[in-house]
Amino acid sequence: VLICPTTILASQHFQTFKKRLEDLPIKVELLSRLQTQREQKKIIENAKEGKTDVLIGTHRVLSDDIEFKNLGMLVIDDEQKFGVRQKEKLKKIRASLDVLSLSATPIPRTLYLAMSSLKNISLIQTPPARRLPVKTFVRQWSKEIIKQAVKQEINRKGQVYYLHNRVATIETAQKLLKSLLPKASLGVIHGRMEERKLVKIMEDFQNKKIDVLIATTIIEN
Length: 221
Description:
By secondary structure, the protein is of the alpha/beta class. Helix content is about 40%, strand content about 15%. The protein is globular and about 60 Å long. The two termini are about 20 Å apart.
């Protein structure tokens, strides 16, 4: 089981797992609020009967109606984002399981357990291949600079996050970018958006159907 704090993250992991394991006889399934009740029921049955090899999901996976035939490993992504109630549930599951917790910003308790040798810790300190250092430029706001920067990124077949942290005026930002970059494909996401639509836009962005994603700080997720 791989458990994540948000439906977006669960969906992204699901796509990655499917792609990497497509040539292997491994059944990967996704369980979150995005599925219909009927789909959820089928996935839960498969987990109970051992027909699912890898189950990826949100804290929906911790619900009382979920049982596993022979659960061998639990992977927790972004452990620090789970609440106390979920952590208590995870504790009960952990007693008889191998658990791998992943975190970019470990909570103090996790760090303490690691430094006390109560928990094994492994640090990934090697950046991914071809990863370049981040360059930050602070400039006075200018339509011309925005246009240049975004065009340069699109011309090298890259993509852009345009951060606009106000839901009320995010459409104004979209209109501005549309006028500056008429040929670019734009997408908009924010926290008040319907979840299915949000996940669909993030999938389109992942699949490079969108050049510029105008977003609030929801992109942290």
